[in-house]
Amino acid sequence: MATLFIADLHLCTEEPAITAGFLRFLSGEARQADALYILGDLFEAWIGDDDPNPLHQQIAAAIKALADSGIPCFFIHGNRDFLLGKRFARESGMTLLPQEKVLDLYGRKVLIMHGDTLCTDDTGYQAFRAKVHQPWLQTLFLALPLFIRQRIAAKMRANSKAANSSKSLEIMDVNPQAVVAEMEKHQVQWLIHGHTHRPAVHKLTANKQPAFRVVLGAWHTEGSMVKVTRDNVELIAFPF
Ligand code: LP5
Ligand code: MN
Q1: DSSP codes, 133-152
Q2: What pLDDT sits at residue 41?
Q3: Structure pTM?
């Protein structure tokens, strides 16, 4: 009995090996799980559920097959796919979760999130995030013709790449005080997140007790998952 967590697959038509790895994961390892949690950035960029990209249908069908086989699938938005909406959730059989959620896994309380909100030193990103999370702006964006949305997303991606090349690694990592504050707010000793693409298990102190922050890896050349069982929390890398 295990609960699985993945994040940062960044699926896109240009990376068929990652898609193949994910499809194999869904029809293999995931079939034995109690539940699957996808902690954001499943897709490289999401510009609306009405995007007719065949990859999206293929992924929806594959997740739906897992959900229909009796394994509940959950999704927390990432900074690339924060616009993923109810229609795709329905088509894929996933339940959309709020940006942070506490789970009780076999008696262990675990906080889960994408991880971008922990990067509080990245003030440029947090300002950007606050802007694009405004509901009125999202409604406006989603009402635009698809080709314009594609152009805006491409521009945002290019700006992001340019901005990141001049930011230090420390700025783009989580802020340690923000991590402790979140864990104390939710009264948990375990946190699982993605976003930073720096897979590791960090030991820290929160609530005056030992605490653990488990960071999922991005799916570049291999898969990454966290497997929580009654006795263990394991960060696992596996080949596609
Ligand atoms: O994504 P990645 O890994 O490159 O870097 C992230 C942060 N960047 C982003 C931007 C995304 O890549 C863009 C994705 C587009 C998806 C779909 C478009 C939907 C549009 C909806 C509009 C309502 O998340 C990056 C972080 C990095 O992670 C590490 O944490 O540093 O942050 C940035 O690059 C942001 C810049 O630092 C700041 C840019 C300021 C621009 C502000 C203008 C806002 C105008 C909004 C107008 C619609
Ligand atoms: Mn991310």
Answers
A1: T-HHHHHHHHTS-HHHHHHH
A2: 98
A3: 0.96
